[in-house]
Amino acid sequence: MDESLPSLGRVLFTAEEIRARVHALAATIADDYAARPPLLVGVLKGSVVFLSDLMRALALPLTCDFIAISSYGAVSARSGVVRFLKDLDAPIEGRDVLIVEDIIDTGLTLRYIVRNLLERRPASLEICTLLNRPPRRLAELPLRYVGFDLPDVFVVGYGLDYHEHYRNLPYIAILEDQAVMASLR
Ligand code: PRP
Hints:
By secondary structure, the chain is of the alpha/beta class. The chain has one domain: Rossmann fold. Helices cover 25% and strands 25% of the residues. It has a 6-stranded mixed beta sheet, with helices on both faces. α1 packs across α2. The radius of gyration is 16 Å and the shape is globular. The site of 1-O-pyrophosphono-5-O-phosphono-alpha-D-ribofuranose has 16 residues, from β2, β5 and α3. 1-O-pyrophosphono-5-O-phosphono-alpha-D-ribofuranose binds next to β2, β5 and α3.
């Protein structure tokens, strides 16, 4: 373990709690999309763990694709303008698209993605996020499927990182280091 990494605080969601919630979400999604196989769009990198579990829990035909976007810096944070580092591999016109995210915070990233994807004229476009952190929301979005609501705490694990670390934890834990929290605000 890197000595400079902040230590973890308490576990907020255990691996078993996450597994149960993912399967419940998958059951709802499978019902909703029974007649129209969805295209799952994962937003790299944080969503990969959630997406890989969710798609294996979905008992219906589906396909998946990925996008990668740059994190916006301080200058463009308010505008929510982000840049595609990797676009979808194929057109989505006429497809039933389900965006899969690990966490929605300000909502600015997803607002940009949604506006961009809607221009491509999918048959439908919905959002599925494992975590929803409303206290920092700047852009309201219709969130069709939500795993857990979060208070204003910084969490890592199950795909979520702190400077690229901790994504591989099978649970979600709070990073309680006050210096870290201050630097993130
Ligand atoms: C996270 C998350 C969303 C975005 C949400 O990605 O996966 O894409 O932040 O934040 P917002 O609602 O405030 O816009 P991050 O930039 O941490 O990249 P990562 O997925 O590669 O970890």
